[in-house]
Each structure stands twice: as C-alpha cells, then as structure tokens.
Amino acid sequence: MVKRIFALLLVLVMIAGCGIADELPLRDSTPGQKMLKNYMSRVNDFLVENGDYEINRVFDETDNVVELGISSAPDNYEPEVVGVTVYMRYDGIHYMLVRVSDVNRFPRVAGAFIRALSPDTITKEQAMATPAERAQRVVSNPSDSFVDYEFDKYEDKEKEILNGEKPQVTYAYYPNQYQTHKDWLQMMIIFPLPEYWDQDEGIIMKVETTDPPFDEEGEGGYFPDNRLVTLEANATPTPEPDSAAMEYDAWAPD
C-alpha cells in the first residue's frame, strides 16, 4: 500500500513538472513577446521529448533582453548548465544565444531549439544532426575553441546581425572560460523577420536564396545546410569570448 501511494505521488510530481512549460512567466504584451512565449513553449515540449529538462526560469526580462535558463532552486540567480539570452524587438525576436556547459546534453538542447523553429517540417533527427557534430568536435578536441564566424561589433562596425526570410544558425565553443572554468558550447539563432514567422507554425517557408553570409558591404545573406532541408544554418556573427562584445553580453560566462 505504501509503495502504491509513493508511486502515485511520484507520478503526480512528474505531471506537475511537465506543466512548467505552460507556466514559464514570460510577458506577452507585444508581438515580439508573444512570439518568444509561443516559441519557448514548443522548445520545452521538445526538450522533454529529447529526454532533457525544461527551461524553467526567467532570470530577467526587459523590453530588449530576456535571460532564461534551467535552475533547480528558486533562489539561484544564474542558470545551471543551460542558459539562454534573447535579444528582443517590439515586433519579433532579433537573435538568441543558447549556451550549454555539458557537451553530452548539447545535441538534445540545441536540437529542441532548432526543431521549434519549424516543428512541422524539421524532424528530431534533422534538428540534432549539426549540434551532434559540433559536440563530437568538442569531445575530440576539448581544449580547442572554435567559432563558425568571428565577429566583434566594436571592431566590425560596418556589419550588423541582420534578420531575413529564414533563421540563421551558428555555433561556437569556448573552453575553460573565466572564473567558472566551464567549457561552453554556444548556438546563436538569428530569427526571421516577423512577416516570415507564424506564431503557431514557426517559419513561413519562402523561396530559398544562396547568397554568401556577408558581402563586401557587410550585408547579410543565406546559404542552405543540406542536413536541414527547411532550415538554413549559416556562418553568422558570433562574439569572440574575450572581446568587448562578449563582455557586454548578459550571459557571458563569468
């Protein structure tokens, strides 16, 4: 009898835990805030499906920047293993940084964020393919940092992080960072312009383009990643870990 009661309590706790995604206390007053709230709800659904933890804390939220993460204690002021920084605009999401300090969890976490961009067209396997490759690269060379595209907004002032018709995704790895001495795998997602985004379905598919990521004037373009049929993974700007741009970043590792 005691075992049955314990089992019932365990099931109730698990059910309550699965409801966290709907309870993530994000604002929804502006079109951009509604976009983020709906998107994060899908992300959390896919995190659970991938066997990981939901994003369950909003550490800070302003009109311009939202800081999210996973935390097991309500009084924690920083995320545990997974941290997310979202740069907002009134009518949409500008770009998002997802940082993970556990290389084994990176494919599951990053895959959930990618799949949530277009849940009807991106499969679980497709979404996790490139993150898994980046994670394996870290496992093979844990002391070697890499970035898909180096960018310093103070030195490269003529270049901007530009939104377009489709999302753009880039990866970076910063080992043994600062006082925490953690190894951070990072994914940056540059979101599409609001007119190419549906609140419920994500990406509104348009004709693909094949321009380079930046031209001589610093203008952005797109090129497809064959592993993701409907999502273009690009060499887009990633702040250098020791640059002024990274220091300004709200979630730069301590």
User: What is Rg?
Assistant: 18 Å
Count of folded domains: 1
State mean pLDDT (0 to 100 scale).
Answer: 77
Shape: globular
User: What string gives the helices and strands in order?
Assistant: HHHEEEEHHEEEEEEEH
Number of helices: 6
Total strand count, please?
11
What is the end-to-end distance? 50 Å
Task: Output the strand order for the largest sheet.
Answer: 1-2-3-4-8-7-5
Class from secondary-structure proportions: alpha+beta
Q: Enumerate the spans where pLDDT stays under 50 for 5 or more consecutive residues.
A: 6-22, 206-254
Strand residues, percent: 15-25%
Largest sheet: 7 strands, antiparallel
Helix proportion:
25-40%
What does this entry look like structurally?
With 254 residues, the chain is α+β, with helices and mostly antiparallel strands. It has one domain (27-248). The chain contains six helices and eleven strands. The protein has helices spanning 2-18, 20-23, 31-49, 106-115, 124-140, 244-248, and strands at 57-61, 65-69, 82-89, 92-100, 146-147, 150-151, 168-177, 182-190, 197-198, 202-203, 238-239. The strands form three sheets. Strands 1-2-3-4-8-7-5 form a seven-stranded antiparallel β-sheet. A two-stranded parallel sheet has the order 6-11. It has a two-stranded antiparallel sheet with strand order 9-10. The longest helix is centred in the N-terminal third of the chain and has 19 residues, at 31-49. It is globular. The chain starts with a helix and ends in a 6-residue tail after the last helix. The model is unreliable at 6-22 and 206-254 (pLDDT under 50).
